[in-house]
Structure formats: C-alpha cells, structure tokens
Amino acid sequence: FSNPYELIDSYGKENGSDNIAIGGFSGFVNRVGIVLNLSSDTVINKAAFSLREDGVAQSDRANVKISGVTGTIGSGGVPDNNVIAVSNGIAATSMSSSFRIETFTFPDAVTLSAGNYAIYVEWIAGDNNNFLRMEIDSSGEKSGANQVQWDNDPTNDWQEVTGSDPIFYLYGQKNLDLITKGSDDIGNSPTA
Questions:
Q1: For residues 33 and 165, is the Cβ–Cβ distance under 8 A?
Q2: How confident is the prediction along the chain (192 residues), in pLDDT tens digits per residue?
C-alpha cells in the first residue's frame, strides 16, 4: 500500500533566499503565509513551512490556519475573516535554531472546494529577543500565489507581498478506500 498523503502544492526549500520574523509584538508580523488557488476540490491533511526559532524561551504553540481570500491574488488578495480550519500546534521551544520543515497536522481532514485560499502560520507570542523566522524567497516566482502577512504595527491588517513567496508544502489525502459488499472481501474470494 502507498502513503495516503500526496503533495498538493509547494514552493520547495531549494528556493529559500531570505526570511521574515514572526512574533506578537509591536513592529513584527504575527501571521505569515501564502494565498493560492486550488484548481479542483481538495482534501487537506497537513501543511508545512520552513521555520526556525530565534531565542525562543516560551513554549507557546504556533499553528497553521486556512481561510478564504478576499480580493484578487496578485492585486491585493488577502485572507478573509472566515477561518475554515486550525491545525494542531507545535511548541516554539521544540523548533530548531536552523531552518527546518515543520509539519502541522489538521485534527480533521479539511475539504476545500476549488478556489482561492490563504494558508498561514500564526504565532502571537514573543518579544524583541524571542521570535520565529519563516524562510521565504524574496524574489518569489511561484505563479498564481503570493506571500501574505498580518502587520501588528502600524497598520494592523493583512498585506499581500507580491513577488515574495514562503517555503511551504501542502499535503492531501489520496482516495484509497477499498469498498466491499457483504462477504466480497479479500479473504473470502470465490474459488473455482
């Protein structure tokens, strides 16, 4: 049997060229991710981003959220206020001080219709000496997708950062259901 998860979309770690600090204090962003288009109905099980801790002493958990998008990707498309799903958290203190792919699992599979979505890491903790960093490509070339970030100060709103993309991997579930009827299963096959 094969792995039940498949790669739905990604912008691989080989593209990493820069990073952005994430923290819940003035002058930093506390949510960073990607707005993208899913061309068909999709089930999402996991999302992964390249992250590292920077002096983090708090055990506060980072998580990934999925929401819809308002506006057009590429010209102001940002997350809307409708959070569709929240992943299980990962304690910041368990993250490496070097960039590493951190995989966030959703407690229940998330079924999404074709359309635009925002998938982002949220960590509302830390201070000027304790924060997370997300690996990005500041000259991002991912077609039809852009980085988004929530600025704590001074704007307190979402911004789309065109030409920049975070390193991410989005995983879904293949349809591997084995359907049986009555006694028609592998162990009770008719004999000649």
A1: no
A2: 345 689 999 999 999 999 998 886 666 678 899 999 998 899 999 999 999 998 876 678 899 999 999 999 888 899 998 999 999 999 888 999 999 999 999 999 999 999 999 999 998 776 767 788 999 998 877 878 889 988 766 667 888 888 889 999 999 964 443 333 444 444 444 444
C-beta of residue 135 within 8 angstroms of C-beta of residue 12: no
Task: Give the chain's radius of gyration (CA, Å).
Answer: 19
Q: What type of residue sits at position 45?
A: N
Q: Say if residues 34 and 120 touch (Cβ distance below 8 Å).
A: yes
Residues 6 or more apart in contact with residue 64 via CB below 8 angstroms: 33, 47, 49, 86, 87, 104, 106, 119, 120, 121, 122
State the SS3 of the chain: CCCCEEEEEEECHHHCCEEEEECCCCCCEEEEEEEEEECCCEEEEEEEEEEEEECCCCCCEEEEEEEEEECCCCCCCEEEEEEEEECCCEEHHHCCCCCEEEEEEEEEEEEECCEEEEEEEECCCCECCEEEEEEEECCCCCCCCEEEEEECCCCCEEEEECCCEECEEEEEECCCCCCCECCECHHHCCCC
